[in-house]
Design a protein that fits this description.
- The structure is a homodimer of 173-residue chains.
- Chain A contains nine helices and no strands.
- With 173 residues, chain A is mainly alpha-helical.
- Chain A has two domains: 35 residues, Orthogonal Bundle (Arc Repressor Mutant, subunit A); 132 residues, Orthogonal Bundle (Tetracycline Repressor, domain 2).
- The longest helix of chain A has 24 residues.
- Chains A and B meet through helix 5, helix 7, helix 8 and helix 9 of A and helix 5, helix 7, helix 8 and helix 9 of B.
Chain lengths: 173, 173
């Protein structure tokens, strides 16, 4: 990723990335479908992490947001370790339309996995999708605040504050 | 769009679409960037419609969801006119990964436009983004229910029910 920061995403070739990582281009493509995927290598782990924490919180039909909130807390603890790395990664993504699209797809996939986890625990529709998708909205907005504000609190705390803001915003008439 | 339904999106060429519409390929590309855009021709109008209704509802910082809800109501009235056409269009989109991506991008653009409208009316962050993005989640889920359920109520009513479900889901502890 350091190469993307130094030269810009468009100007960096797969050959250069592979060389910096001590790999051949062939080995690179065994690990990543394309050079965009390098930036999203953590998203499978993040998804597994979210779904595991959701399951451990034992979602129920009466309060699916409680389990989503536990999943977000686990994700925030894992994601919130390396702020400078996260900040650099996000600035590379924000500067490139293709990367922003890839990010939208990854977020949609996280939401679908959470909704699926809720349904498997008996949460009916549309509640399962609503809880999962608003949860991912909170994750994205909290993450953006965390990387964007120089003196931001830690990510789990911002996540909880954002979840509280969501409750206030959606409950107002 | 009828060609996409008859032959599938991948199998339909721009030349065939243009011929059916009585256009040359050159004229086609003056109106649409690519053949995916044909399916999203209405999204600029939808966005203008949402933003106009949001402004007319005069959003305020204390209850941004009230204005978002008015915007969704206007959108639902406009979108809810042609159920069979909407159903066919959605089945073409759902069958193709590129089209699903394009749809995610259009939805993100709607959310960004709503958030921008709220901020211009003095709604602070993160409330503006939370209200806008959860509003678009409600729009997408309500639309999916409306096209997917054979005996569904009309779209404005499903939109209001989905918004009520959102409030219940996010307020539960």
């Amino acid at each position: 990723m350091q190469l993307y920061v130094e030269r810009g995403f468009e100007q960096t070739t797969v050959a250069e990335i592979a060389k910096r990582a001590g790999l051949t281009a062939r080995t690179f493509f065994r690990h990543f479908a394309d050079k965009r995927e390098v930036l999203f290598a953590g998203s499978a782990d993040l998804q597994a992490n979210l779904v595991r924490a959701l399951g451990e919180a034992a979602p129920d039909a009466a309060s699916p947001m409680r389990a989503v909130s536990a999943a977000l807390d686990a994700a925030a603890t894992a994601l919130g370790q390396h702020r400078e790395h996260s900040r650099q990664r996000q600035s590379v993504i924000n500067a490139n339309a293709d990367l922003r699209e890839r990010e939208l797809i990854k977020l949609a996939s996280l939401a679908a996995a959470l909704a699926d986890g809720l349904r498997r625990h008996g949460v009916p529709e549309p509640d399962a999708s609503l809880a999962a998708e608003t949860g991912i909205v909170v994750l994205r907005i909290a993450f953006e605040r965390w990387v964007g504000e120089p003196h931001a609190a830690d990510l789990p705390q911002i996540m909880r504050e954002t979840l509280d803001s969501l409750k206030t915003v959606t409950s107002a008439r």
